[in-house]
């Protein structure tokens, strides 16, 4: 009751409420820094909306809402969590802004409020209206554990019959995320790019086509594909919401410079009604998964990024406006030559890497020097790298090397500002487009 600055708290029994009142009578209670008081209410129960938990009778079907699902949530993951509380018959997953799954009383009591993985994928559990779930196939979104023949797969693939890893409160799914190397153009002394990943001896699916100029190759077959079958890609929209952008220092090109490391960027649109927020349309849903798992909660220009899946299926241009630097709030990057997942060969060179304080650069002019990078950083108003390593003998047509900053935040800012910088070509009319990505190296030297 915000207007009265009061709230009702309903306990399971009188003992709980009595203990609260007794404690408050003997101790000063502070809520949000203000003295607060606890007394009995004249109400016997808290009235709830018609669709709330209290009006639903206790039954064998639960509605699970998973908040902050930065790791994929599948039937296998939910089975692992819930089966300890009692035999699971069926699971159906609804992929919304977050993840919801319907899978009863013991599970609700023991799992409500728990994190599936540390610090994320938090469970909110309430009783559902249906008393039975209808399942028509066994896959990552739906599974009938009473009828394993629905999938037509090898029975050994049934999560009910194979060894499971512990789920609740683990750090993260071991098959998902983690460093994957630097970039395909990396110098051979630091290791060649790995082949595209295979899982259980097979590739995990075709390239993801989206109808805007042919297929996109940021999916399972190329680069860092989706996780192993237990943790398949979960985003059902190619559009990302980004919050925490610094309005005075960010624009569409700088968003592109960071997000293009994880998939093709189609469009970027800033939201006038929400300063510091933008929508980014990626080339496919796998790119969304990669972007969220690698960029969410990282710092950029002193602000923590919140990166999540959008409800929108595409970005509509709409009415644009000027950002603080004078650039347009909307930009279409479809077909942009700096996208790095446009062909199978190009996409296979990408080695997806978590943000680090070391950047790998390539496609610089052949006579590139340490002083040149200092001049660029001064021009862009960013910190100079603490260390620079120039690779020699790789190519006479261009240069490559490593740039090390003191912190990941500094490297993120450099990536946003300096990626795709146009460097002067001393022997021709066309400049060199400097390209950057995160490196596997711990240090430049």
Automatic annotation (TrEMBL):
**Stretches assigned to coiled coil:** none
What GO cellular component entries does it have?
Answer: nucleus
> Which ranges are annotated Gly residues under compositional bias?
208-222
InterPro entries, per this entry?
HnRNP-L/PTB, hnRNP-L_RRM3, HNRNPL_RRM, Nucleotide-bd_a/b_plait_sf, PTBP1-like_RRM2, RBD_domain_sf, RRM_dom
Stretches that traverse the bilayer: none
Q: Where is the composition biased (Polar residues)?
A: 144-160
The UniProt entry, under PROSITE patterns, shows: RRM
What processes does the entry annotate via GO biological process terms?
mRNA processing
What are the entry keywords? Phosphoprotein, Repeat, RNA-binding
Locate the region Disordered: 144-227
Recorded GO terms, molecular function?
Answer: RNA binding
RRM domain location, by residue?
238-312
**UniProt xrefs under PANTHER family:** MATRIN 3/NUCLEAR PROTEIN 220-RELATED
Give the protein's recorded name.
Answer: Heterogeneous nuclear ribonucleoprotein L
Phylogenetic lineage: Eukaryota, Metazoa, Chordata, Craniata, Vertebrata
